[in-house]
Amino acid sequence: MILTQENDQRKAIMRKAVALLALRERSRAELVQKLSDFFSGTDSALIESVLDELESKKYLSDERFARVRLMLRSSRYGDRRLRDELRQSGISESSIDSAFEDLKETEYERAKALWDRKFGEVAKDPKEKAKQFRFLASRGFSFRVINRILENQEDEEY
């Protein structure tokens, strides 16, 4: 009887995990949290074993999650913010570095495109320049990149 209950619970956890992954990519840490909340009285080892099985079947991958997250959010946010979001999602530093290698555009190009869409012209007074600076900083772009954009420097590799 106990074996059947555990097997039924394992199947329920598997169904819920696959359903969550079908909605969008998730990190392992996010899935552990969601499943622990949903199945509150469940042994964490059972949840971990289900997630191990999902990883072995390639349904769950932190590296893929990091690449997808960067692809979706990199046009709006800077490297600093993106790295922080990935860390908060439980992604390892090596996976984060690997995902950033796949990022095609540099932080400068992304920040410049965002600045062009939002403002499009050089600030005429210090108040406007401060507003533009705060906007880009709040998006997680580095101060070096922001200064380069606001000083209207030529596109150059750095």
Characterization of the model:
- The protein has 158 residues and is an all-alpha fold.
- It folds into 3 domains: 2-60, Arc Repressor Mutant, subunit A (Orthogonal Bundle), CATH 1.10.10; 63-101, no CATH class; 107-150, Arc Repressor Mutant, subunit A.
- The chain has helices at residues 2-23, 28-38, 44-56, 62-73, 79-88, 93-101, 107-118, 126-138, 143-150.
- Helix 8 packs antiparallel against helix 9 (143-150).
- It is elongated, with a radius of gyration of 21 Å.
- Mean pLDDT is 90; it is low at 154-158.
Work out the helix count: 9
Poorly predicted runs are 154-158
Mean pLDDT, rounded to whole units? Answer: 90
Radius of gyration: 21 Å
**Main sheet record:** none
Strand content: under 5%
Number of domains: 3
**Could you tell me the number of beta strands?**
0
Order of helices and strands: HHHHHHHHH
Gross morphology: elongated
Oligomer: single chain
